[in-house]
Amino acid sequence: MHKGGILCIVGARPNFMKIAPIIKALRAGPAPISAKIVHTGQHYDTAMNKQFFEDLGIPHPDINLEVGSGSHAVQTAEVMRRFEPVLDQEQPAAILVVGDVNSTIACALVASKKGIAVIHVEAGLRSFDRGMPEEINRVLTDQISDLLYTTERAALANLTREGIDPTRVHFVGNVMIDTLHHNLAKAIPAADTLADTGIDLAQGYAVLTLHRPSNVDDEATLRNLLETVNLVSQRVPVAFPLHPRTKGRIEHFKLDGLLASGKIFILPPIGYLHMLGLMREAKLVLTDSGGIQEETTALGVPCLTLRNNTERPITVDEGTNIIVGQSRAKILAATEDILATGGKAGRVPEYWDGHAAERIAEHLHAWLNTRPAAAA
Ligand code: UD1
């Protein structure tokens, strides 16, 4: 890479669908911006990682830090330790980080201390729940970012409240929805993904994803959720792609029996194109993921969020999302309503139009040209 290009950081599953359109947009056009991909290795299983690069056509990472798992401190520190020499070697004009995972804050922190500009995509989202590790990552990353690209207009108020100069904030829309638009035609039909389950597609199905520490690390909370899912499955079969963290917790607490209703169908973590097809055809989605709240809103599929808050309020205000927490009564009532009426109608938010990454590339191009080391 010529000095003055951009290092784009990915680490964990939700980063991959955000970086794919950005890389493409940066490298496109008559004056491409030099960009390299650094993979921290936070997620390393094929199903959590390699499959997404293939599905999304992301070029191989130029640099892999191979940090793997660990406590938050160990994982964050290891990314920082291994990323520093990469910065010394590459001397980019800026690094670009996405989302809110440990790799995001770790790389942002190293770069900012070295005086290298930090660009944060998906800035300004706030759950106002500091018990959530991602909320800490969001707040801190935004504080040390030089350019902040937002997915919804409400993010600007969150950032200015925290003292961030609004001239650094740019509303561009949602790059994750760029990826959704780009891949919808290639989505794998649910019939293929569910072929071995015996689910009668004519009757419909629900999709469940669960991985937040607040939902899966506490035995009583996880037990309550799985018992509730068991009840949901009496009404509509549930397809459940199982995150490694959740799998581990279910085994540890010996809760496997709660999944044996005969109507809950466990799948391994599935690739992006499988998940897209599965969500698109679902009657409803139950999730504690951030990205899935957005994807269901873009698809117009009802979503029940198994958390007490969301950092993505636009999915509730404008989209199909309902916050139900861990309340059995709310989950069952909302399920009944969706099965009876199809759920609340939503609309697709502003700038979730498939062109967010192009807006970023256009803005970055102009911005880089004002910097001492110009874009390659
Ligand atoms: C991380 C992100 C979260 C994101 C999620 C998506 C942070 C703080 N959290 O949480 O925001 O929604 O990814 O998946 O960064 N593991 C594997 N194989 C892998 C990756 C992880 O077995 O490829 C295991 C780890 O050993 C660990 C557990 O899964 O026991 C959790 O992984 P980790 O990356 O620490 O956090 P996530 O819960 O995945």
Short description:
With 376 residues, the protein is of the alpha/beta class.
Layout: helices, strands, pairs:
Elements: E1 6-10, H1 13-27, E2 35-39, H2 50-56, E3 63-64, H3 72-90, E4 94-98, H4 102-113, E5 117-123, H5 133-143, E6 147-150, H6 154-161, E7 169-171, H7 175-183, H8 190-193, E8 206-209, H9 213-216, H10 219-235, E9 238-241, H11 244-252, E10 264-267, H12 272-281, E11 284-287, H13 291-299, E12 303-305, H14 314-317, E13 321-323, H15 328-341, H16 356-369
Parallel strand pairs: 1-2, 1-4, 2-3, 4-5, 5-6, 6-7, 8-9, 8-11, 9-10, 11-12, 12-13
This protein binds uridine-diphosphate-N-acetylglucosamine.
Residues 12-14, 42-45, 48-49, 69, 100-102, 133-134, 211, 243-245, 248 line the site of uridine-diphosphate-N-acetylglucosamine.
Q: What do these coordinates show?
A:
The protein folds into two domains: 6-173 and 352-375, 3-Layer(aba) Sandwich (Rossmann fold), CATH 3.40.50.2000; 188-341, 3-Layer(aba) Sandwich (Rossmann fold), CATH 3.40.50.2000. The protein has 16 helices and 13 strands. The protein has helices at 13-27, 50-56, 72-90, 102-113, 133-143, 154-161, 175-183, 190-193, 213-216, 219-235, 244-252, 272-281, 291-299, 314-317, 328-341, 356-369, and strands spanning 6-10, 35-39, 63-64, 94-98, 117-123, 147-150, 169-171, 206-209, 238-241, 264-267, 284-287, 303-305, 321-323. The strands form two sheets. A seven-stranded parallel β-sheet has the order 3-2-1-4-5-6-7, sandwiched between helices. Strands 10-9-8-11-12-13 form a six-stranded parallel β-sheet, sandwiched between helices. Strand 12, helix 14 (314-317) and strand 13 form a beta-alpha-beta unit. Helix 1 (13-27) crosses helix 16. The termini are close together. 49% of the residues are buried. The mean pLDDT is 96. It binds uridine-diphosphate-N-acetylglucosamine. Uridine-diphosphate-N-acetylglucosamine binds at residues 12-14, 42-45, 48-49, 69, 100-102, 133-134, 211, 243-245, 248.
